[in-house]
Design goal:
Layout lengths: L7 H23 L8 H22 L3 H6 L1 E4 L8 H12 L2 H4 L8 H6 L2 E4 L4
Antiparallel strand pairs: 1-2
Helix pairs in contact: 1-2, 2-4
């Protein structure tokens, strides 16, 4: 195992943090309740989640949750994946199934489609 492998536990914790941040932002800016009262409120929270993750991951290489747990999303050259690929990755992640189907090198279908990988940031 590489010392930069991103464990499933870290990934899930980052996802939980990102969802909470999106729910709080949606509540603050639109007044939706949490837990959502109906499908409309759930869609608003999901839209905030997709927007937040796409922008941060595409431009910086990490979301708030990933930054907290020490993970980064990168392309083959080790750089952020850009907004179009981040949008594709995040939309597929929102469907859940692509994220839980993983290859031997711990890349979900959403990462394969976007040409990305998640690594643990190792401080030296």
């Amino acid at each position: 195992m590489d010392d930069r492998d991103a464990s499933l536990g870290r990934r899930l914790l980052a996802l939980l943090i990102d969802w909470i941040v999106a729910a709080l932002a949606a509540s603050l800016f639109t007044g939706v309740s949490y837990p959502p009262a109906d499908i409309g409120e759930n869609l608003v929270i999901t839209a905030f989640f997709v927007g937040q993750i796409t922008i941060l991951t595409g431009l910086l290489g990490f979301s708030i949750g990933k930054r907290v747990v020490g993970l980064r999303v990168e392309n083959r050259e080790g750089r952020p994946i850009g907004l179009p690929r981040a949008l594709l990755r995040t939309l597929l992640l929102s469907l859940v199934i692509p994220a839980i189907v993983m290859t031997d090198d711990k890349r979900g279908l959403h990462d394969l489609a976007a040409g990305s990988r998640v690594i643990r940031v190792v401080k030296r």
